Amino acid sequence: MNSRSMAFKIITISATISCLGLVASVAQDRNSNRRSTKQADAEEAPAALVIKRRAVVLEDPRTYQIPMRLEPVRSIAVIAPVDGIVRSVHVKPGDVIPSQADVVRMDDTRAELLTRKAKAEVTARQIERKIAEAKSGAADEIALADANLEAARAAFELAELNQDRMVVRGAFAGTILQVHVVPGQFVRAGEAVAELADLTSLVAEIPAGRAQYKAGDKMSVTVENQAASAVVESIHAPPPRFESLRPLIDSLSMAKIQIQNSEGNFHPGQAVYVDLIPTEPVAVVPALAISNSDNGQRKVQVVREYVVRDIKISPLAQINSERIYVSGEFSPNDEVIVNASMELTDGTKLRPWVQEFDAPEETEKSKKQFQSQPRKTKSRGL
User: One GO cellular component from the entry (predicted)?
Assistant: First the structure.
């Protein structure tokens, strides 16, 4: 047979603007050169496969990364109530103390002397009162002695109170986070000497859809790769730093959550992560492109370098009935498959397949005519 037969493969993908045929890469052997051209064409021609796809425009997930950290359910700065010099420090960071435990003791030498003086004044006024009563018994003198005694007692109580203030105590049972002073250091009234926190519960503020949760609901969050159960305390408007999340979350709001920490598994400052804040590239995909994987997780299929890939996704906010924000392990050149004329599985390889068909025996006239015209081909898809 003088005629030649040559096959090649082509991809036909139907997209928004253009359609190309996509075919699975399946090599086909020629059984015999003895078959006629029509028979070879019929046996080697693949079935048409049409895939509608759309290019993916990716957004960097770091655009939406907003730090969220655990904080103590309550914490205070332990304040020096008076000016003075630190005599001794009774705690160190990490200590767990009961309520009203000594934290810092100031130098109380002067306060102690004033207390002793006030106490002596009370004793003197008591004696004066007895003398006035025994001497004349006059009502005015006794009333004056009583008033002086009462003033002395009040002065003594004030002196005791001032001396007691030289010992700085914790307001509640908790954990010492920081100590800011050392013995011998002079401090002013109102200056913080330590930080005290109640770590039996920790709180955080996280983004949430307003209709998604209400006060009292339970939810799960991730605290530095560790799952934690939390209770929603309240729902309120988001602060300005969370406004970048509004396109991704329907009716954006903030949920204040509380995590029980009686066993001390968590610590203030640990990072909190929620599914609503993406950690993978964000893209807008057609709603029709989303389906369920075998384990029930949402996915889309993409064409990546002529290979079909299943991409597990996390659905975010829906723009309208046709488009939705998702996050997943997309690559820059991925094309999302909207639909296909046959079912595709992850890993299916695709490549162009174009076939040129045998021509009838050429005459000198037909050769000249053929050489003067562009070469024609037929495209087929599997």
Answer: efflux pump complex
